[in-house]
Input
Amino acid sequence: MPKNFSLVETHGVETEPQSRFVTLAGNPNSGKTSLFNALTGGHQHVGNYPGVTVERKEGFRKHGGLDLRIMDLPGTYSLATNSLEERIARDVLVAQWPDVTVSVVDASNLERNLYLTVQLLELGLPVVVALNMVDVAESQGIVVNSKKLSRLLRAPVVKTVARRGLGADDLLDAIRERSAFPAPAEFRVDYGADVEREIERIDGLLAVAEPDFGPVVRRGLAIALLEGVRTERTDAIGEGVRRAARESVERIERLLHDPIDILIAERRHGAAAGLARQTVRTSIARRKDLTELIDRVLVNRVLGLPIFLGIMYSVFLFTFTVADVPVGWIESGFEWLGGVLSGLWPVGSDSLFRSLIVDGIIGGVGGVLVFLPNIVLLFLAISLLEDSGYMARAAFLMDRVMKTVGLHGKSFIPMLLGFGCSIPAIMATRTIESRRARLTTMMVVPLMSCSARLPIYALIIPAFFASQWRAPVLWVMYVVGVVLAMGCAWLLRTTLFAGAGLPFLMELPPYRMPTVRSVLLHMGERSWLYLRKAGTVILGISIVMWALATFPRIEADGMSQQSAAATEVEATVAQPDDLASRQLAHSFAGRIGRMMEPIVAPMGFDWRIGTALVGAFAAKEVFVAQMGIVFAVESPEEIGASSLRQQLRANYSQLVGFCVMLFALIASPCMATVAVVRRESGSWRWAALQFFGLTVLAWVVTVAVFQAGSALNIGV
Output
């Protein structure tokens, strides 16, 4: 327990510890995360709760002489159910007993949101209510009397517009004042004479068994025992009290002919409805809800899905068109840097250190970093769609399609996240209640074109396709991934994971204008992860791949004993008088590629592509790095992504380029994804099935496309 924790109600006795633990609790789509960002800014830490894969966000803020540690709890509608998010939120609140809990309430949906607020107050927690999104409520003709609501709840109520940062300072002031006087609010719900009689009976037993508990805390604990809600505190209660609670439940249900949890929930809903009726004023001339008007078009049964596909096409067109100029700048920058560094060595020098720096690091990492503008713009577009509320509509639209393969719209949310990265997407499957549906979604998520594949697309598409075809080809790659994911999901749900599905219930948030701060924060976080990966994982792998492409060395005349034995084989992949090509073919990478060639040749690939695909297992972007290294080592005078595209055009056909993207899309996920699947599924069996299954599927599909394209003379 925190040092300043006490179950004894202080009734106004002020305490002054220098640090405070603050939690944010609220319904999904109440603006809780936006409020967390407004309160903490960039001082945030993201990890997992101990023992589970639910994300935990913590931030820090100094205010009024206090150090505030602020935790954003998982979004939940109630603390009385037993989903993973609700259990975690409940355990944090009860076990760690925050100095202040901020109940984040959507002002435009006050009645529904107040249900959770009522539960928090019943627990005896020091609560501050953040009446959020008051701008949205007022635009709908809804005005909440915050002062009256504060009197009724007996807790501070602060108006906020979290996405614009409005009210954040007032909320921090309220948190500071509430933490100084942490006595529980004496708010209570009347559960009716029969239930109240049993609550008082259990309260009396608790007063004897746990004399340190104050009356508000005892009452909240008695209600939790009647509901059957398990927490660390209820588990610590003696068996005598728990047995008495079970007897009370039997008496109530026998008398009232309804389950106790339903009876309690009905009274809480009634209390929330009463609070809303007394504090909400709706203008007579309330204008038509803008969200409803927009949804008539965007969520239309006929128009909705084509509009969604069109929006995604526009995203890809934006990603390629706008990124062209900054990509060119970065390419030129790396070409200039490579030229400057090469000039530090004498002309004709065969320095290994020069090759490592220019060919290995600049050719490898630089070949990946040039596509950072594409990554940034894609994340910018996705952040805009997420923050506006449209992504939730996409899941709703896809529900009808997902049902045909035995899933529902909630499975599409991790699949959408997969466009960014498979790892958080797989972790997001924890929101799916059915284990069969969760495993199915987990297995097909890597078929979404994650940001690691975008550098491959950004390299290949401009190399082989005219500018007017670039956005359509990129759109096709994403659609192919979705279609294959749906097909694989259907296969899994009718074989390994057969079973009845669950209904899909999802709240559609109102449309909101995304704020610059929020969009930049989301875009910056994801882009930084890409940069960090380029500077660590890809750098390390690039050095390894450079070494494989450089050693063992052959003599300058090409006739050493070691190379002479391989000359005949090397001649099949390089001109005899081309020392650089012969050296590359003689290297470990060349030998691995030649061993793989019988496997990759039916897809139209040669040994160079084969070795790059091996490196891509560690991280998909390494394919680009390895191709850059291969052609930099083979043609030392050529440096940069633009020259790499020229090399690709000179060595491969348009059909081969398309097949490379297709194989990279379908084939085994990266090492980190495999590890996450093992952790989330609890078994290496599912991780291995995904790895080998997708690799085999990639080979079969790519062979079929290449052979059919060759037979029909398409793109050859």
Q: What stands out?
A: The chain has three domains: 19-180, 193-282, 308-499+524-557+573-711. The first strand starts at residue 19 and ends at 26. The beta strands are 19-26, 44-48, 55-63, 66-72, 100-106, 127-132, 142-144, 157-159, 280-282. The chain is about 60% helix and 5% strand.
